[in-house]
Amino acid sequence: MAVVSIGPDTSIYEKNGFVVVTSMAALLPKMLEEKRFELFPRALHEPWTELQSMDSAVVESKFAFCYPAAMYFFVNKNNRRLKERLTYGLNKAIEDGSFDRLFFNHPITREAITKAKFEERKALKLQNPNLSGHTRDILFNPKYTWQPIHQCISPN
């Protein structure tokens, strides 16, 4: 089965046994409609607006790929104060619940969670060969992951 991918996800799909087709992002919807591949994996928040430009595509409703990956803020390595303030602020927001309030009430995440119905899907667990030990340790801490996906990204 051919899967399309761009960026760092390519090696994840290859490591997990998929034949991967790559191209420029702008060409992928047309390639999907031309049946040049069978799967176009998207992040939880992505397919809903992208479908508006694709006539023959649908979001698969029973399954989801799940693998550990992270998003980071990058700051100048010499700006230690900024790093410490961001870390402090993020941890404070997690502890006082304001991070969850923003996460669950922001229009993008609220809509994605509602439409995706992730908890009703069978999560197909994939391995991420690019995960550093530091990132793995952070992601496997339930404090830093959305609970419905925590179980599917943890090593057990």
Furnish the topology, listing elements before pairings.
Blueprint lengths: L1 E3 L4 H7 L3 E3 L6 H6 L13 H4 L12 E4 L13 H17 L1 H8 L1 H10 L5 E4 L7 H7 L7 H7 L3
Parallel strand pairs: 1-2, 3-4
What does this structure look like?
- With 156 residues, the chain is mainly alpha-helical.
- It is 42% helix and 9% strand.
- The protein has helices at 9-15, 28-33, 47-50, 80-96, 98-105, 107-116, 133-139, 147-153, and strands at 2-4, 19-21, 63-66, 122-125.
- α1 links the parallel β1 (2-4) and β2 (19-21).
- The radius of gyration is 17 Å and the shape is globular.
- The model has no long low-confidence stretch (mean pLDDT 89).
Percentage of residues in DSSP E strands: 5-15%
- Biggest β-sheet strands, sense, barrel: 2 strands, parallel
Helix-strand pattern, N to C?
Answer: EHEHHEHHHEHH
Unreliable spans: none
Biggest sheet, strands in spatial order? 1-2
Helical content stands at 40-55%
What would the principal axes of the Cα set say about the shape? globular
Total count of strands: 4
The radius of gyration is 17 Å
Average of pLDDT: 89
User: Which structural class do the helices and strands define?
Assistant: mainly alpha
Distance between the termini: 27 Å
List the total number of helices: 8
